[in-house]
Write a structure and sequence with these properties.
3 helices; six-stranded mixed β-barrel; 259 residues
Length: 259
């Protein structure tokens, strides 16, 4: 297994993009721990002769999509995975949003948990850098138990004193909570997308206050019993390490606390 694999991150409003190639085509991968399996852009990768499966995707709300299977030569920075099994999906709905900011960008697909689960992922949002299997020690001893339900990484967090299981999703630009958490006292920030201001969320010893959170039905996410999603607004607040082999999530000091 590779050590200290440095990957530069391009941050497009919370979408983390990694340089790479798919079947020789240069472009960008979305770093997505919320995806149980890596996805290749169907437009760039031929599908195997197999029936399509139904998948859930989030496009302003949970929707159904057709999923095919295939294999591809995958490169993420210097990491090379020839003939890697891939799920193939029409990613037009993702490209449309990204092209608003980067019209010329080629979206290769998403880097998901089938590739990440045997590796340690360290994310330095302030430095726009990801490291796979870092060899230097993490700068804090705080660890949060991480569970892999299927391939989905989840942690325990609490909202208003209520514990829940939350998906740790580097591909999510927003945090999400099930509608059952809703409180009439929460300020409504955006009616169309049902974005509210969450007074407080507790993760380990960390308290995150006044977070924007989308309220939606989480029952269909990855077909798992989830209470919500921890996305960019929480993860980007500090150095994060996801040690999938040891089932640990490590949180560094908040960037706002550093001198």
């Amino acid at each position: 297994m590779e050590k200290d694999l440095q990957l530069p991150i391009e941050n497009l409003e919370g979408v983390l993009l990694l340089p790479g190639r798919l079947n020789g085509q240069t472009g960008r991968w979305v770093l997505d721990t919320g995806s149980c399996h890596s996805l290749a852009n169907q437009a760039l990768c031929p599908a195997a002769d197999s029936p399509a499966k139904e998948a859930s995707v989030y496009n302003g709300g949970l929707q159904k999509a057709q999923l095919f299977s295939g294999a591809a030569d995958v490169e993420i920075g210097p990491l090379q995975l020839p003939g890697h099994p891939m799920a193939l999906l029409d990613l037009t709905y993702v490209e449309k949003e990204l092209h608003i900011l980067r019209p010329e960008m080629v979206l290769l697909g998403t880097l998901g948990m089938d590739i990440l689960r045997r590796r340690v992922l360290r994310l330095d949002y302030a430095a726009n850098r990801a490291v796979l299997n870092p060899s230097d020690p993490f700068p804090t001893r705080e660890e949060i138990p991480l569970k892999l339900a299927g391939n989905a990484p989840t942690v325990s967090a609490s909202i208003a004193g209520r514990e829940g299981r939350f998906l740790v999703d580097t591909g999510a630009t927003a945090c999400l909570a099930d509608r059952s958490f809703a409180d009439k006292s929460w300020p409504l920030l955006e009616k169309q997308r049902q974005i509210y201001q969450l007074p407080e969320l507790i993760l380990g010893s960390r308290v995150y206050q006044n977070l924007p959170v989308v309220l939606d039905d989480t029952a269909a996410i990855e077909a798992l019993p989830l209470d919500g999603v921890l996305g960019y607004p929480i993860l980007s607040a500090q150095l994060v390490e996801l040690d999938f082999p040891r089932r640990r999530m490590r949180l560094g000091p908040k960037y706002s606390d550093e001198s």
